[in-house]
Each structure stands twice: as C-alpha cells, then as structure tokens.
Amino acid sequence: MPTAVREGIIRWIKAQYLSLVDARNFQWVPPTWTASEAEFYHLLAEPDVQASLSYKIFAENAVNYPPPPRYRSTILKQLISLLEPHAEEIDDGLYEIYTELIASSQTAGGLSDRIKPSHVTYLLDSGSGSDADVDTKSSSSSSMEVTLMESRSLLASSGTTGLRTWEAALALGEYLLQPSIFLPLLQGKSVLELGAGTGFIGILSAMVGAPKRVCMTDGSDEVVDGVVRNIALNGLEDTTCMVTAKRLWWGTDPVPVEDEDDWDVVLGADVTYDAAVVPSLVATIAEVLERRPGALVLIAATIRNEETFAAFERACDERGFRRMDVDMSCIPRVFFYSKAVPIRIVRIQT
Fold first, then answer.
1. pLDDT band at 159 (very low <50, low <70, confident <90, very high)
2. Which helix or strand (DSSP H or E) is residue 310 part of?
3. Mean pLDDT of the 174-185 span
4. Are strands 145-150 and 118-123 parallel, antiparallel or unpaired?
5. Torsion sign across C-alpha atoms 190, 196, 202, 203
6. For residue 113, pLDDT beyond 80
7. Within its chain, how far is the Cα of 73 from the centroid?
8. Which residue in 232, 181, 227, 219 sits closest to 202, CA to CA?
C-alpha cells in the first residue's frame, strides 16, 4: 500500500479515536472511499497497516493523552471483529493491547468513562475530518491539535453543561480554521469568548489565528477553572498571545478589559440555548459594541428550539445590530459531530 494512503487511513481513524467518537457512530470507511467496503477492510487488514494501527494509535504510549481504557477496549474490539474476516491473522500487538485493556477494565471500579473527566483531542488539520481524502493526505501533514479535559455526560454534577465541547463550537471551529477567515479575523486582534465552556474556541483561536490576546469567559467558576487547566494543557500560559480565563455573568458582571484594550472580536458557541438568558447575553454583546463600534461578533448556535433563537434575533434587532448568516455550505468538515440538528453561525455588528 502506498505510504500516503496508509497514513491517510491511520489519521482518519486516529482523529475519531482521540475525539472519543461514540463507538456506535465510528466511521471506519471514509466517505471519500470509492471502492467497496470489503476492499477497504482488506487494505486495513494488511500486516503493515495493522502494525501501524497498533503502535500509532492503540499502544499506551502512542499518543500523549489516550482515551479512557473502556473506550479504547470498545473501539479495539470493534476493529478486531472487522479485521477477522479479511486478515490471515490479527496483529499480535493489537491482541495484546486488547487483552490488557480488558483485564484492567475488569479490575477498575468507580465512575464510568462517561461521567469521569477524560482527555479529548481534536486534530485541527483538514485530514482529520469527515470530508478528508485518505488518498492524498501524507504523513507530513499538519499535526496541530487541541486537547481538553472534558466530561462527556450531559450535565456535570454541578448542573453546568460547560464541561464538554458541543456541536456548535466544533462548527465555529471549522469556520475559524479557514485561512481566508482566521488571518483577517484574528491576526493581531483582541478576542473575547462568551460562554467558553471547555475553552475549545478560544484555545483554537490562540493556536491558529495569531491574535494579540484571547480572554475566555464563563459564568461558572467551575468551568473557568477547567478552562485555566485546558490553557495549561495546551501550553498556552507563556506565549506571545496572552491567553486568560475569567468569570463573566452576563448582564451583571462588567465585560473585562485588559490593558485598557477593547475587544475586536467576540466569539460564542451554543450560548443561545435558553430564552431566559437572551436579554443578558445581548446586553453583554451591546456593552462590547458600544465600547468598540467596529467589533465583530460571531455566534454559533445549534437550533434545538427555533423560537429560542428567534428571541435572540429579535433582541439583536431591537438593539439595532446588523446580522448576517454565514454561508456554511463551503466550510470543509474537520471534526466529527452530528448535523442532525441545524447549526447556524451569525455575524453581528453595529
């Protein structure tokens, strides 16, 4: 098998594995694969590919922050069952890793993987996404990634939803990853994130956009503490871009100001989830735009309830804001998430 094809397949699987794609939704065959599924699994079953899967993905030291053991064993079991009809034999390394994981999961107690915080890593180059072309991605492609500590359960024990990365944040991340977007939008700018959650958007912006500063805010002290840890996890405490996390309760706390520098860009994802918070959210946006009339606000929303988002639109209109939907049809898919519920990205300015 050509090296570029093998490395593309490895990266396709690795991107899903590190971002903890649910085993029920794991896509072994890329959508760009034009031959039959059987031919794909025959390629996957080749000894050199199996060996690469073992030491580049599933081995304990293959990645800096491996998924939880039970998740690893579930995905590895699925892989082995797919390989068995097509392989003369299964790689010894894969079997050994699977056996060790099963043994460790049987002795481990405590909280389930869905409740315990775990590392989740998002590969940022286009080779990791669901539109990736495994035939053209080589081992020299970018390896930039964001690693976060997340709780994948719906709610944390405190009731906050801010301890996991939601679909709208991933969609906004894909938009920001386009060179034609992040260079003019972020380079040298002061960026404020509202409702930061895990800090995914702010951290991604700091890593790829070369902004002057990024401040990630949230109304939950627990969430802000988590963002601080995620900033450190990605090595952003001491960089040319100043990266901080602060508490901001919309409509109550004043928008933070750093070095008397107002914000050029405001980012928010999944912040319009509740009609009750819309007036406070829009008031906070208005505070930024009053201080910096030329600022740009980008809000990404999963439209779970059309009336809730309509309430946000009305509140913006009442303030006299100009708003325009971003055309998302041409944004390349980079991350793995469901689009069953519509997602919108709206640009807001005065």
1. very low
2. helix 306-318
3. 93
4. antiparallel
5. positive
6. no
7. 23
8. 227
